[in-house]
Amino acid sequence: MAELVLKSQRFRAEREADWRRLEALLAKAEGGSAARLSREELLELPVLYRSALSSLSVARSISLDQGLIDYLESLCTRAYFFVYGARSTLLARMGGFFTHDWPAAVKGLWRETLVSLAITLLGVVVAAALVAGDPDWFYAFVPSELAGGRDPSASAAFLRATLYDDHDGKSVFATFLFTHNAQVALFAFALGFALCLPTAGLMIHNGLMLGAFLALFASHGLGLEAGGWLMIHGATELFAIVLAGAAGFSIGWAVVFPGETSRMSAAAAAGRRAAVVMIGVVVMLFLAGLLEGIGRQAVRADALRWTIAAASLSLWLAYFYLPRKTP
Questions:
Q1: First-residue to last-residue Cα distance in the chain
Q2: In the predicted model, is pLDDT for residue 314 greater than 90?
Q3: 147 and 250: one domain?
């Protein structure tokens, strides 16, 4: 036993200087970046790392000091990630997100996206049919204080003016629509874990509001015009909401049907992919806000509004679903 203790002490005395040197270089690099290391220090790091690995192997066989083994394991782990870990700039990471991570995550949720879209369209059709049959149904889907005068009692001239003329009421209603849709998107994702039910409710509620709004204008012969005003930014905004619903559905589905893993593990895995989708949804909502502002102020021709809507939707579909090379 005395001989083993002596070997352990001699082993530490002979090699501790290299361990401290490696620790100092790692601390210097971790405090800023690899650019802080000189060329000689960069060349020295992998040599010291291999030496530390060798020391760890020996320490496990002869050392009586568990604290030393733990220290070497931690040191070797830090050095491994520095020597072999992939390092990239912020721009490179953002490029990887937009070129691969986000579209791949959206494409992986195509089934949930179809479900989210189908539920939304169901709400649109139901509300449009009810309001067309009885205009009073409009008040059940759109509160009067939020409609801003856009209700069954409004004249066709007033409704037309809200689509083309600049006035405060138009701005308030447009802001409400954007705020409402952003809230629906975030809550649809956040509440997905509750067995998909709140997400489904939000999707159909959003569809009901949209259907009631379109049916109101259509009853005055302004359906095409209202659709163009809405879809110039709605093609992006509503697509974002549908994707948020799909992200929520994916988490809820994982909780209900976890497969061979635990519910917690399945939900965590689904949550990671859904979170990537939601980061992109925030970007889409921001772009929709820009389109809404530009479209409301500058674009008045119905044909141009519909052209912009069709172009933006086509670009999103191509971006998410066209085949691309795997990086």
A1: 56
A2: yes
A3: yes
